[in-house]
Amino acid sequence: MAIQSYASLSEQLRKDTSSLLVIAGGHDPRNAENIEYSAELSKLASSLKLSHATYTPPFNATPTPVDVLFLHNISSWLKTFLLQRALILVYTPTNEHFGIVPLEAQLHSTPVLAIPTGGPLETIENNLTGFLRHGEQWPQILDMVLTKGVNPEMGRRGRERVIGEFSKEAMASRFENECIDVIERTGGIGQGRWLLKWDLWVGWGVVAILLVMIVLQLAR
User: Fold this and answer.
1) CA–CA distance, 3 with 55 (Å, rounded to integer)
2) Cα torsion angle, 1, 161, 208, 195, sign
3) 134: how many CB neighbours lie within 10 A of its CB?
4) Domain spanning 2-166 has what CATH number?
5) Least confident residue range of 120-129, 167-176, 199-208
6) What HEC string does 20-78 produce?
């Protein structure tokens, strides 16, 4: 969807703004599915008359001017560099669960364009920290970003929101409140001590699993 939306922009606009669509992520050359998907993306770019190139670690090849740049298995510092330099992050998954990538982008003050389904509904404030739009509206947003830029306030607000609501400290506080809520709803407080009923144990098990999932996401 990102490639198709980018191809919908006029060639003159892409040239005048010296824009570049970077598609970066993990890639296992031993995995047939990864190889097939990478080939499909390259074929799609070619079919839309977008020049493209693919680079893999250690990225020591001399880059050539292209419309779409595919980067495989980027390092943490390169990911940070790209997020800091990007005008906007285009997040393509549909009905994705929580999703850490939009938070990483907003932490670096980079707005996010995503489909209004799944995790982005929670992690992105529409028109405030990013844009929640259906695919057919993406070219319009990209055109606007390239011609007018993005209000710096959007990036600042996104960073503040991530730190305020999705940092380890904020999630720990939310986790504590959820635990208290579980205890109160199950009648687990009485005579100065917690009465651990079976349903309370179930509740604790659920929140423990959620905590492990959050920690694993933050540790990536």
Assistant:
1) 17
2) negative
3) 10
4) 3.40.50.2000
5) 199-208
6) CEEEEECCCCCCHHHHHHHHHHHHHHHHCCCCEEEECCCCCCCCCCCCEEEEECCCHHH
Residue 219, pLDDT score: 62
Looking at per-residue pLDDT, the higher value among 3 and 208 belongs to 3
Q: Can you list the alpha helix ranges (DSSP code H) found in the chain?
A: 2-8, 11-16, 32-47, 76-85, 101-107, 120-123, 138-148, 152-166, 168-185, 198-219
R_g over Cα of the chain? 21
Report the interhelical angle of 168-185 vs 198-219 (nearest 10°). Answer: 170
Residue 198's pLDDT is 47
User: What digits encode the pLDDT tens for the residues 8-24?
Assistant: 999 999 999 999 999 99
**Separation CA 203–CA 62 (nearest Å):** 56
- What is the token pair recorded at 187? 């009648």
**Average confidence (pLDDT) over 208-217:** 67
Rounded to whole angstroms, the maximal C-alpha distance in the chain is: 74
Cis bond upstream, residue 58 (ω within 30): yes
**Pairwise CA distance, residues 20 & 90, whole Å:** 12
Q: What is the pLDDT of residue 209?
A: 73
Task: Give the tens place of pLDDT for each residue, 143-199.
Answer: 999 999 999 999 999 999 999 988 766 566 666 666 666 666 665 554 444 444 545
Q: Reduced to 3 states, what is the DSSP secondary structure of residue 116?
A: coil
Quick one: tokens of 214? Answer: 């959050």
